[in-house]
Fold these 2 entries.
Entry 1:
Amino acid sequence: MGEKSVQKKRYIVEKAREVFVEKGFKKVTMKDIVEACDISRGGLYLYFENTSQIFMEVLRMESEEADDVFSDSITEDATAADILLLFLKEQKKELLRKKNTLTQATYEFYFENELPKRDNILKKQFDSAVKIIEKLIEAGVDNGEFICEDCEGTARNIMFVLEGLKISAQTIGVTAEAVDREILYLLRGLGVED
Amino acid sequence: MGEKSVQKKRYIVEKAREVFVEKGFKKVTMKDIVEACDISRGGLYLYFENTSQIFMEVLRMESEEADDVFSDSITEDATAADILLLFLKEQKKELLRKKNTLTQATYEFYFENELPKRDNILKKQFDSAVKIIEKLIEAGVDNGEFICEDCEGTARNIMFVLEGLKISAQTIGVTAEAVDREILYLLRGLGVED
Amino acid sequence: MGEKSVQKKRYIVEKAREVFVEKGFKKVTMKDIVEACDISRGGLYLYFENTSQIFMEVLRMESEEADDVFSDSITEDATAADILLLFLKEQKKELLRKKNTLTQATYEFYFENELPKRDNILKKQFDSAVKIIEKLIEAGVDNGEFICEDCEGTARNIMFVLEGLKISAQTIGVTAEAVDREILYLLRGLGVED
Amino acid sequence: MGEKSVQKKRYIVEKAREVFVEKGFKKVTMKDIVEACDISRGGLYLYFENTSQIFMEVLRMESEEADDVFSDSITEDATAADILLLFLKEQKKELLRKKNTLTQATYEFYFENELPKRDNILKKQFDSAVKIIEKLIEAGVDNGEFICEDCEGTARNIMFVLEGLKISAQTIGVTAEAVDREILYLLRGLGVED
DNA sequence: CATGAATGAGAGTTCATTCAT
DNA sequence: GATGAATGAACTCTCATTCAT
């Protein structure tokens, strides 16, 4: 597959991403993607065999670009609390966003495909986020910003709360206030006064 | 609708439940349910128009029967900590169970149907669970079992963690140990020593 | 499947037969048969899963109706030679007929489906034809019409020649004269003077 | 077309032959052949327009190389009976061979293409085989090996029996014993004692 | 009420064939 | 000459939904 093919594949994945954002995973057909890309029916099959394959590529591309969840938050003289807060605000924005989100499609994809439980991109992201938060909390404890006895447990707790908020946002609905309240609760747990 | 019709409807819903447990929500077709019920294709349409309608009925029946999430745990002389622990154990069992769970189907259903965000059974269950946990914690605080400054916040935190664990179990996979660890973390947050 | 279904199935098989006669086996699609029957696309699938299944049914029906290859030839006072000659004439007509023949389709079907080598309708027909010809020759020998030392071998020889003529008719082409010549040759082998 | 082109064409035909041997004629697509040859899709079209054209070339090449059906059998001091027997043994081997045979593909090809009935390679091969067998029988009669009144008729009979065996091998199945039995029958018809 | 045959829309998939490079 | 990406027609198959009985 030449240079051009790589570009076209990328093009398809980008267009497909929009479709998945729009419709989730299950509802999306090869036809939908063909139409979104404005290519021929057979053309798509030159690059991908099915929607799962395309979605996995979308996820891969996503995780490549988004590896820097924290990098935005980390600036020269930011404190641990600043960084954590920024990260949580970022997550809030993400989880409240109705559109331009792959959240639902991602869940649906993992529901449908029991297989990739191991070496699961989602899991890797979760674990690495826990690690980073843990380091952050440790740093905060060191310089007296945070109070925390079980940094790892707290990091994991934060991530599960975020997961809970995320899925709740997609199902029972969650308001900005509700998210703020949870963020406050988490910060207070670290000994941060408002 | 006569008595007989009510019974048949109930029969359909029960059979359909098995199908949803087995296949989630999206993948299920009217044909699947017709076959599971061993009734005629047209027959099903006399009672339900589509799978969404059937699933909502499944959910309704479910919540009627399961309103007593706590009732099992509450006995005469159980302490607040006992009850909370029993509840959490119950949730653990539920979320680790691969089969006989409507979890996935429920998520899929709410993904597909943006509509029932309001008067959403899931939301009601969530809110009422928060309430009950809050009362429980308050009781625990009163008799010195728990230490807690923000009972409502803590109750909500517990529920979001459970939601996070539940969705994680369906996507990235969660081990029994991981769940135990979270439960311990939550209890320690209430000042409970192991 | 009720009485009506049986009739419709029969109707489909009859229409499909025409299609197979027209186009052989391989070229025929479910769509072709749907169109020939003037039923809906999905309708055909209620009765048959694929063209092989339909063709097998065509063959079965064919063999039911045609079990009496010889019965036409057998009359009260016909001699063995008469009957044999009539049979051979019948075969001649059959193998020279361009249209209304399942020959080609049958060959194609057996090419495609290696499976039914055993309990193969074609084989049964061949074997039973050999048996009948053998009996016929024996009868002819008994009453002095034929001279033959190895009736079974001769019967089989006749059938293989007929098979050879049949496939030749479909591939290299065979004239009426050529068939007559072979028939004469076979009869002379039985000591019959023209 | 240059020297190189001729070679490439030959290469394609040889590779295509393998495909036809493997899959018959009808099932073979241009894509199959492209893949077998490991050339480009468009490249094949520079040489052939469709599978029929390719197959005809395969047949032509085949008949060029195989014109010597008998040449193997004919040695200095072999008797007519020896040669005939060798030829029949050769045919037996051929028709029992499951793989490496173009038989099925050839039949399918002639089924599909009504056209080449005239100037039909198959026919030429058949006719020339009849001629040769006839000469052989005449020679055998001359030196007292065979008894035969109608050499041409007998030669043709032999060829039709072989055709019958060949197609039977492909459809109803034929055992080595069955072939031997037919060969014996044919030889006895020529007055040859076992 | 209940049945289940029938319809037809629509998704998936494969290839023959073309054509710019 | 040669390549292989691209197109689009054609086929298979599945269901939601209707309707005569």
Note: DSSP finds nine helices and no strands in chain D.
Entry 2:
Amino acid sequence: MAAVSGLRTLISVRHSVICQSFRLAPLQLTLTRLSWRQYSDSNGQQLQSNTENKSLLENLNLLGVDVKMARQRQPGVLRKTFTNELGLAKFLQGKGASRNVIASIVSRYPRAITRSADHLEQRWQLWRNVFNTDAEIVNILDRSPESFFRSSDNENLKKNIDFLISLGLNSKDLHRLLTTAPRTFSNSLELNKQMVELLEDICLELGGKNPEQFAKSVISKNLYILIRSTKRVKTNIDNLKTSLKLSDAELLALLQGHGADILDLSNEYLKKNVNNLEQKMSSLGCKKNDIKKLIINYPMILYIGPSTLNPKLDCLLKGGITIKQILEKPKVLDYSTQNITERLKELQRVGYDFEKNGIHILDTSKKRFVAKIEKLSSLPED
DNA sequence: GACACCGGGGTCTGCCATTTCG
DNA sequence: CGAAATGGCAGACCCCGGTGTC
């Protein structure tokens, strides 16, 4: 008896929700739920395991969900007897998500409809501890529904936030972290701890004195680090250590600085980039020591793949810049080959002398560059 | 004003494999 | 056993501004 009345309540809640939110004919919904009741009463559990829940499918269609996509991604969800698709829709709508966004979220991560209203509210509030507005969260969900819904463990989420704070990350860091790499917060606490421990161990191994500070620094410089595997990060560091011949102190400084980003790269990709860099630079007459200095001064060079780096270097050389100048000011490599090409053309037009003036002009902001060119154009030749 | 130095900002999911759960 | 939860992977840079010094 209690179950029946509970079911009725559920139906009537679903009913009013969908009528309110999507203005559907009441009749349509009643029929939907009735057919579901008959189905599950007479057939019980057996059919459930290999038959899709018809009324659920209808609801998904009403919500505009791409059922084909949902089926392809998480087929089991469509076979469940009890789901909360309408509750989820109402919840998200209340947070400002549009019909399209809701449909897209469910299409891409169907399991979202298995979360209860209480659960959703609790998880949302935990995210709101980090974000300032609901709209920010809706944005992330639209971008990556999986990040929010993949785990149902709110306790774990809470512990993660506490853990990250305990590392010394402030609220601005947390905000950046959750915005940029929301998956971090769905990791198990254990997994996040493992990465932090790895970073601290690396720091100590390299003779660092403050492992906590090191870990915090790497995380805030590289917001993706916690969604990488420890294996990837460890292998990259080992490879860098053996191939670059840096001293421990140099490597430590590299990793805490701009070099933190290169830990993201897949092991093979980083290896390939290091090899290519060494080959290319020595073919241009650079010594081992030049290359080492180059990497220390501009670690992001290891981020650049052969197919980008080589043409970029060639472009600079062809434009009348020497390899020595590039070694002294590697930051020019920060800019796209296209951008460099355009600037070189402009500079050639006004007869810019790199030997006399250096090449820093190539790595100033667009605004400054344009101003400089204008000035040079209006000046008579000297 | 020109320049050097330094640091920061944006940006990253969607799929598959494996393990755990009920 | 199937579903849920969790872990891991591939992919691959560009740009801007504040501040200090001459």
Note: Residues 73, 108-109, 143-144, 146-147, 176, 179-183, 221, 223-224, 227, 257-258, 358, 360, 364, 372 of chain A lie near DNA strand B (CB under 10 Å from a C1').
